[in-house]
Amino acid sequence: MNQDELKRAVGQAAVDYIKPKLDDNSIVGVGTGSTANCFIDALAEIKHLFDGAVASSEASAERLRSHGIHVYDLNGVPSLDFYIDGADEINDRLEMIKGGGAALTREKIVAAVAKTFICVADESKQVDLLGAFPLPVEVVPMARSHVARELVKLGGDPVYREGVVTDNGGHIIDVHNMRIQSPITLEAEINQITGVITNGLFAQRAADVLLLGTQDGVKTLSQ
Ligand code: 5RP
User: Which of 32, 58, 130 to mutate to test the pocket of ligand 1 (most atoms within 8 A of CB)?
Assistant: First the structure.
């Protein structure tokens, strides 16, 4: 199977995973990116089994609506059973780097509300050590240079993602050359920098379940 087929396989596997637990009142948390898009497309096939969704980006909201799935504002939703999203890297503790699609802040917010975070990923995303993928950091635009200088002090090599404005009006700095030995600590340290909105380490709130697309089929890993 090629990478696109693996993404479709994990998207379908996520639908199969949540389907028995859905009812008329269920609202599903939905992530962002090409793997999340595969999940959305598979989810549309069972849209009669749940009420609606909350999306972590305008792009995902638009795709959900195009399938006839109602998209709720998170502020009106007291709890979510599931959040399903992809990752740029994931380790064996199910800690992740996310934000390749610049949706990290909303992804982290929806993940914080969900009882169960299901990560859907093909096997290219599995790593022993996080950091080969540049770590995205969303910043308030006027703080970009200050945050970049502080990221250098933490050992990183920050690169401004030119031309990208997030759904929140933020800018993205991608931090290269980080070998992230302590993801929970680094996540907190970066978030302490004034001007940072959030960073793409998902370690304080890691995934609960990983549906990993491999050549031997979809493997289910959990904490
Ligand atoms: C977007 C994300 C995505 O989940 C991540 O970039 C993976 O994307 P894809 O499934 O397209 O490889 O964090 O901000």
Answer: 32
Residues 6+ apart with CB under 8 A from 75: none
CA–chain centroid gap for 48, Å, is 25
For atom 2 of ligand 1, the residue with the nearest CA is 99
Burial of 191: CB neighbours in 10 Å, binned 0-12, 13-18, 19+: middle
Q: Is the CB of 98 under 6 A from ligand 1?
A: yes
Give bridge partners of residue 211 from the DSSP assignment: 120, 220
In ligand 1, which atom is closest to the CA atom of 33? Answer: 11
pLDDT the model gives residue 223: 81
Angle at 111 between CA 39 and CA 19, to 5 degrees: 40
Of all atoms in ligand 1, which is nearest to the CA of residue 104?
14
pTM equals: 0.97
Phi, psi of 17 (to 5 degrees): -70, -45
CA–centroid distance, 103 to ligand 1, in Å, is 8
Which pLDDT band, with edges at 50, 70 and 90, does 156 fall under?
very high
Distance between CA 10 and CA 6 in Å, rounded? 6
The larger pLDDT score, comparing residue 223 to residue 5, is at 5
Q: Mapping DSSP to helix (H, G, I), strand (E, B) and coil, where does residue 213 land? A: strand
